[in-house]
Amino acid sequence: MDNxxxxxxxxxxxxxxxxxDALFRHCYFRVSSREIALDLTQDTFMKTWEYVSKGHxxxxxxxxxxxxxxxxxxxxxxxxxxxxxxxKIDEGMQFESKxxxxxxxxxxGMAVKAIQKLPDQYKDVIFMRYIDDLSPKEIAEIxxxxxxxxxxxxxxxxxxxxxxxxx
Length: 167
Description:
The chain has 167 residues and is mainly alpha-helical. It folds into two domains: 1-82, Rna Polymerase Sigma Factor, Chain: A, CATH 1.10.1740; 95-167, Winged helix-like DNA-binding domain superfamily/Winged helix DNA-binding domain (Arc Repressor Mutant, subunit A, Orthogonal Bundle). Helices cover 78% and strands 0% of the residues. It has eight helices and no strands. α1 (3-31) packs across α3 and α6 packs across α8 (147-165). It is globular.
């Protein structure tokens, strides 16, 4: 094994360690299944590794990973026409939480429900910004849009979310 390949492996392992939790969390909230989220997250890293190991350059690996994951989620829904997250929440689906504070869990549940009520143009950017902790620049790269447009959508989405939550 040459040093270049070894360097790529080390870089990729570091990227995995830094991004896997955020990617899984993003995917879990989008597909509402732990097993599917794990599979899609793993597939994202495998596809990205294949792409990078073939010599393709990736300028922003985090943004690239989220883009690959987003495409995987879209493909999953196209193949499996599953129930919407709204329906699952209405049926009483609970999200995993590391905390035990009931009030905090209730607030998270209300926030997730409120985000789901947003129009799609705002839902994705709010989710990426505040759940995935991505910067507007990273979101712009993932969605292939101008950073200024993303910032405006985030601002408008937060305003709509405040309306929904009566804040």
